[in-house]
Design a protein that fits this description.
The protein has 311 residues and is α/β, with parallel strands linked by helices. It folds into 2 domains: 7-170 and 196-228, NAD(P)-binding Rossmann-like Domain (Rossmann fold); 176-194 and 230-273 and 288-309. It contains 12 helices and 11 strands. It has helices at 15-26, 38-45, 64-72, 91-97, 138-156, 176-181, 200-212, 234-245, 255-258, 262-269, 277-283, 292-309, and strands at 7-11, 30-35, 50-53, 75-78, 109-115, 126-127, 162-166, 168-170, 197-199, 222-226, 273-274. α8 (234-245) packs across α12.
Amino acid sequence: MKTPDPHLFCFGLGFSGQALARLALARGWQVSGTVRSEAKAARLREQGINALVLDTDAANRLPADIIDAIQRSTHLLQSVGTARSGDDPVLPLLAQAAEVMATDWAPDWLGYLSTTVVYGDWQGAWVNEDSQTRSTSTRGLARLRAEAAWTGLSAARGLGPHVFRLAGIYGSGRNALETVLAGKARIIDKPDQVFSRIHVEDIATAVFASMTTPTAAVGEAEVFNVCDDEPCPPGTVIAHACDLLDRPVPTPVSMDEAGLSAMGRSFYADNKRVSNRRLKDRLGWSPAFPTYREGLAALLPDLLARAGSGA
């Protein structure tokens, strides 16, 4: 039975999931979700999150405590990436759990965290949620299949999913400042290449805005691009981080000289500018960090404090 108060269940309390969990807790919500290890679960429980252990790569069924938490939730978010097989790892577990779950159970809201990789290469042009998904990469095609599969599950439960296509994510502990400080910053010499990005805290506010104002129609996915206001070359962000830290800007190198992995090269195969207009128009959302400049400026004091303490 659902709880009378808003209760978020999040498959995958990772970087983005934890940011959303913290926001929901601060707004008085109950939060449950899954992690891969008991040690991480214990740390999150200390923060007031009902963290439960689930390794989606190894599990063949959902444990009873997770099924119970799901049935008590009012809002369900899938934040786990696709498996090595390319399939969504959560859907088969949920399908099996349906055999023992209440037949009339359905969350008030269902969300899925996807990626802007699904748009593929647009040679620097702008894309929005109505743009053709041109991805030919294994990762992009897998995400498109997962989006469709969650739409099917939602329709069966009388819902429509809210799909969030996330741009490149950064935040505390994962940003250009950290890369520069670690001496690992590189600028790839690829003229006219641009990326969109998003601060993890802005992901949380975007998803939470949807959770409190559902907009998806039954059986239809409501897709939102989650990104900041200023796509730009990745080297521009690195150069700005260097300026903030008073470090020299790296000399641009080719992808061959950089020794990029196949995954690293794949990020440079696509070139597009992603629009967040739908989020703003439909949900009244606006990013707290509209560009990398505000985002890095906010992250700098904590980074310097940790560097000074040797942490």
